[in-house]
Write a structure and sequence with these properties.
4 copies of one chain form a homotetramer. With about 280 residues, chain A is an alpha/beta fold. The first copy, chain A, folds into 2 domains: about 80 residues, ACT domain (Alpha-Beta Plaits, 2-Layer Sandwich), CATH 3.30.70; about 190 residues, Formyl transferase, N-terminal domain (Rossmann fold, 3-Layer(aba) Sandwich). Helices cover about 35% and strands about 30% of the residues of chain A. The first copy, chain A, is built from 8 helices and 13 strands. In chain A, the strands form 3 sheets. A 7-stranded mixed sheet of chain A has the order 7-6-5-8-9-10-11. In chain A, α3 runs parallel beside α8. The radius of gyration of chain A is 21 Å and the shape is globular. Chain A starts with a strand and ends with a strand. Chains in contact: A-B, A-C, A-D, B-C, B-D, C-D.
Chain lengths: ~280, ~280, ~280, ~280
């Protein structure tokens, strides 16, 4: 049985030794360890993957001892994940299909190891894709007046299906504080610019206007401040004077889908940790 | 004899045919033609390289006929350059040596085909590099009080040496309106961020603070608005949570010198045109 | 009405002037011109897009005059395409779905402007994707013994549907000389390495074995020599010692689909020309 | 006092715990730990940076205990480096100046933390650069007949100055077995292609001939098989049909110098380990 442990705590001498010693004493073989110290904040981060032979690990007992022997002493925030439990991921879309197709074709081929209980959209257009992949599709229109009601419907579905995290696959609505507080650092957005450049609406138009030679896409966790959450992944591509805004948009689509899918996979594999509005991304 | 012609004018039917016909009629063989139409502004841009056999071209006569037969009719802004006339380039530096070394080693090996009449610096530190390469070095300190006087000295040198364009190779001073007006779209700066992100001071610190996964450098023509001039060249490199600000600065140095040298070479080869605060970069 | 003209011929003085003059005389407005001279082979290449107002162009008449007035004189190989005629593209696949999904989702959103009369596969697995997108799917198994017969079936379908070009979207069979001769420079393959490195079978395994720090994908026209045809497009991504072969394959999938789709779009937009086993790719 | 420990040994359970426990018991604070397991070869690699407070570490005693308590038990190959001891690096060049300038300007600004006791060249051309930077320059010509004698002179200098490793900064000679055996995985070369593509002579010509769309550079440790040693660092840049061989060479120069300097810095910082003709590169 393989488990992944994520830890962060105030930096202090001896943590690695203590944690690896504990796992070793419980019959675990550490097959991956990556650690990081944020020197400014004096915070220690670690991600460990361990194999426990013969599946002989009593997870609850392990957790109890870890909590009392280590976590309390080092003031750790920590979590333990069995790799055979797939996280549940809801997808929100509007009218663009490229990110949705990219996620679903990865899901389909087993590359994206998550469950997808449903897709929510404020438009009906992409319902046919949900049908193609046999995934329930909920059309929840959002207007100025219905915003609150729509949100309640969304939350009800998310809770009913015990959703772990949300992917905004070019969902063209600003999500509410309520949703953000229910899913802190668990809503993944794709913004079609190289943030912090061109935050907000119409980034390709702004990039064109400015005459940049490179455009980008940024996947980040959603926080209350628009397009200002912790960045998970970014990528860029070159453009030139010969490209029109339409070309920017077409080139950008390729970036958006690849960057978003990479970010989702990092999250699913528990390779992301968030601190001070920044991410630690384990390799 | 090889000449390069740069043209921009209102877009209209028949320009390419008229210009190429004219050159052909004068015994020129077009060995390169690149053209671009800015559809929004309805402006036509063209760059032509032509060979005139046996050096039989009377440049002044050609210019006169071109002006009266073509330029007037099509309302062209245009220029003609003989490839054997090297542009004169002044370099301004402060204390960082990487861009300066990069420019001078290219100059030294013949890759950068320009004359460098002198280097100006507000500090003495890099004088030894000028000495290494046998290039006159003028130390012109700039303080709040001496700013105007310093500028006059700079302008005097620039005029005396008939300098064509200026390269700010990490010159840590804001150049004045006067200088900008004397050298419109002829002052090339390197900014150590992926503009328009992180304009202004300390971009690596700001990038670190924001937790970006990619940093960049931007070379642009200097205009009165800080870091907002027409972009010539940009490039980026990946960073991660494990990099400190010091690492950002070190990785950035490589970007800065390569991006600046590429921009300078594009300018020297007359492959840049500026319009509406954007550049057309010919290939 | 917009047309694209592609020309190559022995390099000589006056071609651009002659062609642009001719188009102008026929009421055409050149909205894009790109040209290239292969200095070693002394061959001239040109791509022109022209608008003819009021759709007043008699295409057959234009072609006849172009042929007699220009093409004969300059020994041109040339073609003229109306932009409203979509090329017909057949897709060949085996068992991997990522390139197929990428092509079809672009087709679906109107980004890939071609007709897709059918998909051929030597396996049944991906039939469901064809069904998802309502495209006829022909399962033509290929064994040592049935190879010739299979090929005849393929050719029959290709001819019946007047297919213009073929895309091998990770088709794990070597196509025959017959097919290659019927579709010269019209079969586009994606090879999962940075050619010419790691041609042939199992390139990711070979790359892993060699310990490279960058892997790539290459799209090329198929010629009789395996993986040695004219390269249309390449891209790469970084890898490290920490990546397994499985990671190489996963990262490679993203490259493969993007590189293949880019190459297909270049072909569809008639931006590729082939000469001496190399491509000219217009911007 | 900061030390870096590099370890590799057969993979087995408990190593991390044992090593980190030992360091902790000696008053060391681990400030960086990166580890890797080569699953195929079943080999474990680790790099640790530790701070020992008050400089109270008795290095010799630490080494002795480490050897007897840990290294023997786990069959480790290991080394310990104090960060205040700079490695001694010899540079070999021929006629190209770009890599040399790049290394020396980094050396000059303190970015490259090594000693450079001398530069060796088979030509006199670059002697002036050595003079610019006040570094001894030895001109040791190499002809068919003098090859052995030249090598002896090189070896003598290398030993006299207790050189730790050698950088071939575009040294256009094949180094002998003798030298390779004296400096195993301690001779760093820069090859001007994306290996394993275009090994051997004239890679840019071969790349041009093949019509690739991307060119590269590779820095690797020198082994007896030409251009086949463990790869440290690679990078690439795009090219097109419009680039001549001369353009390839010019674009390649920028790659070569950056890639070589990065590889040298990784080596100097003891971030490289070699196993089975591959490298582990720590972050």
């Amino acid at each position: 049985m393989r488990t992944t442990i994520l830890i962060h705590c105030p930096d202090q001498s001896g943590i690695i030794s203590a944690v690896t010693g504990f796992i070793h004493s419980k019959g675990g073989n550490i097959i991956y360890l990556d650690q990081h110290v944020d020197k400014e904040a004096d915070v220690f981060f670690m991600r460990l993957e361990s194999d426990f032979e013969n599946n002989g690990l009593d997870v609850e007992e392990f957790k109890k001892e870890f909590a009392s022997n280590l976590a309390a002493h080092y003031q750790m925030q920590w979590s333990l994940h069995s790799d055979d439990v797939l996280p549940k991921m809801a997808i929100f879309v509007s009218r663009y299909n490229h990110c949705l197709y990219d996620l679903l074709s990865r899901f389909n081929s087993g590359e994206l190891r998550a469950e997808i209980p449903f897709i929510i959209s404020n438009h009906e257009e992409l319902g046919y894709i949900a049908k193609q992949f046999n995934i329930p599709f909920y059309h929840i229109p959002v207007t100025k007046d219905s915003k609150k009601e729509a949100e309640e419907k969304q939350l009800k579905l998310l809770k009913e299906h015990e959703v772990d995290f949300i992917v905004l696959a070019r969902y063209m609505q600003i999500v509410s504080s309520t949703l953000i507080h229910e899913f802190p650092n668990k809503i993944i957005n794709i913004h079609h610019s190289f943030l912090p450049a061109f935050a907000g609406a119409k980034p390709y138009h702004a990039a064109f206007e400015r005459g940049v030679k490179i455009i980008g896409a940024t996947s980040h966790y959603v926080t209350e401040e628009l397009d200002a959450g912790p960045i998970i992944e970014q990528d860029v591509t070159t453009v030139s004077h010969s490209h029109t805004i339409k070309d920017f948009i077409a080139k950008g689509r390729d970036l958006e889908k690849i960057v978003l899918s990479r970010a989702v996979n990092l999250h699913v594999q528990r390779k992301t940790m968030v601190y001070n509005n920044k991410t630690v991304i384990f390799s």
